[in-house]
Amino acid sequence: MKILQNFILTLSEPLTLKFCFFVLMGIFIAYNIILIIKHFRGWRVPEKFVGQRWYQNIFHYIKRAGWGFLHHKIIFNLLLVGSVGLVIAGFYLPLPHVISPSNPSLGITEISDKNPLIVKFDRRVDKENLKYDLFPAIEGNWEFTSGVTDSDLKFVPKKTPEAETRYTISLKGIKNIFGRKSENYLFSFQTPPAPKIVSVSPSDGDQGVLPNQEIIVTTDFPHLYTAKFTFDIEPPVELDVNNLDGVKYLFKAKDNFKKGTEYSLKISRILTTYSYETKKTENLGEAEELWAGKFKIIEAPGIKSYTPNGYGALTDASIRIEFRQDMSQEETAAAFSTDPKIDGDTSWESARMLVFKPKSPLSKNTKYTVGVSKSAKAADDSNFEEAFSYSFTTIGHVAVSGFYPGNGARNVDLNSRINVTFNQAVDHESAQDKFSISPTVEGSFSWNGNTMVFAPSGFGYGKSYAINIASGVKTINGLDSVKGFSSGFTTRLQSVMLNIPSWRQTYMYTCMAAASRQALAYRGITVSELHIVDLMGYDRTPWSGTWRDSNAVWGDPNVGYIGDIDGKSAPGWGYGSHWDPVVKALSNYRPVELKRNWSVQGIAQELASGNPVIVWWVNGVWPAYELYWKNNGKSIRAVNSVHVQVVKGFTGTVDNPTSFTVNDSGYGYPARTYDVGTFQAKWGWFSNTGIVVK
């Protein structure tokens, strides 16, 4: 049974059906031609038909041939015709299948107007029911063709697809022209990747590149229509660019690169699409930089180094010029000059080192210009591309070239040393005599080369100091100073910061317990927020009335904790307590001192003594305004947005603090620093109240 099934499956294959169709049709045609020829050879026109008209004879022949065909071999022909019919039914009745592409996920596939995408079916397909889509969409035309035994679907794009994109083709309603059953087919293909740079020659950092060097850029994939490359070079040079094979670029400077010049090359890529109809290229986005590098052209004859230079050259100094290449000594010496002219002798220490020694000392405080003209020649007979010149100034008047700390410096350490650097060697005692500092500070001097170092006995916090060097500092080689020099700096502010741990408050309205917990932890005592609240006690008078109505009734925060720690009970807000209940709780563990109508100087003094301070103020997040309600007939004052924090440090001095740092368990966790003005504004809502934990 299985052998029969396999035989039937083999017969149903399209190639087998085609073979059978052509074999049977050949047999049918050949067999009947033979029959007809044989039949007519053995038949003559009867005498009774002789002499009749020609068309009557033709009719007779046709009648005779048909009768002979039917009479002799009709059964075999019927079998042949029936077999051909079965073969044709094998083409048209089974469900068509896609035979190409056979893989539902194709790799890199390039399609174009010359290389369209073709889908092949093994049998004829009902065109009217076939639906096909391409996603993402590409402009193009679908063409459907059907033969006797198969069908093709072809897509011809109007422009190149985007690079490095996977496209999906969906075929729906694949069925034969007679049947009702259909199937779908889905496959995809990947367009070639966007080209990338594989190599650049010369590479980044190359030195000694020839002026006529060709630059070669190699990419990894052909990209005639999918991308274009741009080449930007600095300093700008006009380039001849050639794309050799769609992958490699070759370009060079039209007038050669300039010797001794470093060039920066940037290569960018723009993805493109090409229209096969308009023959135009369209950019798909902005240029993307793929490579950047530098290379340097071989040096032309020129100067490598020279001395003296700048300011402060000694009057007995020789002029020394080192060239980049071996030089033609006679011609190069003739190209050497100075302005003003100096009488002296030229010699060569080596093939690259020219030395000019003046016959008499140079003038002090004078600018000299040294030049080498384009007539200078290298040993290989190549000239300078450009004339060269530089200037130096001989030693002049004593001057201060630098102060440390620098002028206007702030936050200078109290033990910083003052450095005064002179532009030349000076007489030490003379310089020390001309030094002064205001306010006066005692100290000692030392020297490091031309730098005078003053080590003070100690500066004060947050003070401004002025340094002065009077005129008349004596020189060793040059001219005495003719003017004074000054600088100024400010020392750092005093800073005190207690190591108070910080935790977020456990509940929404337990900031006063959280602050107490942190202050006690600094003193080595560990307690929980809820335990502190229990020690504070509660006033459980329930809320009654309307918020911001002075006749409403609620608890007294000066007696105990009021409201819910999470703010869940009426009026929908928690509150907490003021300072008296907190003093009661903290007194169980440490000595405390309550301060009312206090000052920022007082807080600074306590912090400087190592004592944390708990303060009441507004949080700056919720609106701040006064509230009033009743408790046992007494009017209670409170503040919306009340918050309690631990002050842990300050900057400035005790007498003049400039900022305070607080541990914030809620809105500025873990700590925040406020300038003294902001601190006082927030603190003033509660009459500058604080608790010192000793």
TrEMBL record:
One Pfam family named in its UniProt record: Peptidase_C39_2
Membrane-spanning intervals of the chain: 15-37, 74-95
Q: Which residues form a coiled coil?
A: none
Show the Gene3D superfamilies listed in the entry: 2.60.40.3710, Cysteine proteinases
Q: Which residues are in the Peptidase C39-like domain? A: 499-665
Q: Which InterPro entries match?
A: Peptidase_C39-like, SbsA_Ig
Residue ranges occupied by any SbsA Ig-like domain in the UniProt entry: 300-394, 399-491
Q: Does the keyword Transmembrane apply?
A: yes
Ordered alphabetically, the record's keywords are: Membrane, Signal, Transmembrane, Transmembrane helix
Protein name as it appears in the record: Large extracellular alpha-helical protein-like protein
**Organism lineage:** Bacteria, Bacteria division CPR2
